[in-house]
Amino acid sequence: MRPETLVGDHTIYACVMGSRAFGLATEASDTDRRGVFLAPTRLFWRFEKPPTHVEGPAEEQFSWELERFCELALRANPSILECLHSPLVEYADATGRELLSLRGAFLSRRAHETFTRYAHGRRRKLEADVRSHGAPRWKDAMHLLRLLTSARDLLRTGALTIDVGQEREPLLAVKRGEVPWPEVESRMTRLAEEGAEAARRSPLPEELDRRRVEDFLVRTRRASALRTDPSDEVVRGDRSGVPERAQFQ
Questions:
Q1: C-alpha dihedral over 183, 187, 188, 192, to 10 degrees?
Q2: What mean pLDDT do residues 187-199 have?
Q3: Which of 12, 95, 11, 1 is nearest to 50 (CA)?
Q4: Which of 115, 138, 186, 229 could form a Cys-Cys staple with 151, CB 3.0–4.6 A?
Q5: Domain span at residue 173?
Q6: Predicted TM-score (pTM) of this structure
Q7: Exposed/middle/buried for 94, CB within 10 Å: 0-12, 13-18, 19+?
């Protein structure tokens, strides 16, 4: 089964991400689509396993296989958690809706560590650009401010909201290079400090609900294994009653 077929025939959840989901889109913004597909269980019985992710088939489209998606979400990967909380859901079947119902199971105070580590990496790149070129990539600076704000508010409230709301214009001013870099740096430092303070008092649980997620994954895999598929070859017996072959396409 080709990767594009997996995405086309087995997607359980699809959404729009990027600037459009963040409320930061302009006329020049692309439409970034993200999704989750459920590879049929029978494909895991081969030596060659199905892909953990697929880029395409459309431009600006990226999808994860369900198990890989859950693994990354359990690590509090910022991009994956944001994908689960996109306000622009384009498709969700019954399995996709159950995945969305598990959003709270992936949230814990561990998010502070992962979001902070991700933010530190981005900030170091921005600072390197300033040293080398005299200015950062302003779009990247805008998105780092957005990420730090989102992480702080998640730790404060226990809910992940990715639309920037009233922060749209101040953030777009940063993207246009209208805010001096020292001021942007000051904002980043303040947001990081507020995030650390929020982590100490956060309503989020200390640990995420791994067992609940694993139960969902096992049930989903089992249900897939029990489905009949027209592409499976029927096991046929010869005159001695011994099966000739059993091949899974």
A1: 150
A2: 96
A3: 1
A4: 115
A5: 110-200
A6: 0.86
A7: exposed
